[in-house]
Amino acid sequence: MTYDEDEQDGLRARSEQAIGELAQALIDNPTLHNAISAAFGAREKAIEAQQAAMSALNLSSATDLERLERRLRSFSQRLEDVEEQIDQLARDIGAIRRQAAKDGADTVKD
């Protein structure tokens, strides 16, 4: 290992240690903890206020629209399944009619 590489490794280790100590100091800081907690609390209250305002104006939220989109996709899939079943029934009825017509024609011949 060269002297420069040794120097870089030492600098890297000291930097990592300093960053770790800084992070720990921030985590342990009650003022920062309180500020973050207050920010998250304010965010929740803002979301609740937004939802209440949208509800009062009879507007849908993005969550409501996403839920509606999922329900429409589900309904569309079920409708496609029903259409496929109707198509299959139509084919089955057609086959039964052809068979009945054939059987009727065979009976007339006899």
Compile the SSE list and pairings.
Layout: H1 3-28, H2 30-56, H3 62-109
Helix share bin:
over 70%
- Distinct helical segment count: 3
**What is the total tally of β strands?**
0
**How many discrete structural domains?**
2
Mean pLDDT, as a whole number?
89
The SSE string, one letter per element, is HHH
DSSP strand content:
under 5%
Helix/strand class: mainly alpha
Distance between the termini: 105 Å
Low-pLDDT residue intervals, each spanning 5 or more residues: none
Q: How large, in whole angstroms, is the Cα Rg? A: 36 Å
Question: In short, what is this structure?
Answer:
This protein is mainly alpha-helical and 110 residues long. Helices cover 92% and strands 0% of the residues. The longest helix is centred in the C-terminal third of the chain and has 48 residues, at 62-109.
Descriptive account of the structure:
With 110 residues, this protein is mainly alpha-helical. It has two domains: 1-59, no CATH class; 61-110. The chain has three helices and no strands. It has helices spanning 3-28, 30-56, 62-109. The protein is elongated and about 105 Å long. The termini are far apart. The relative contact order is 0.03. The model has no long low-confidence stretch (mean pLDDT 89).
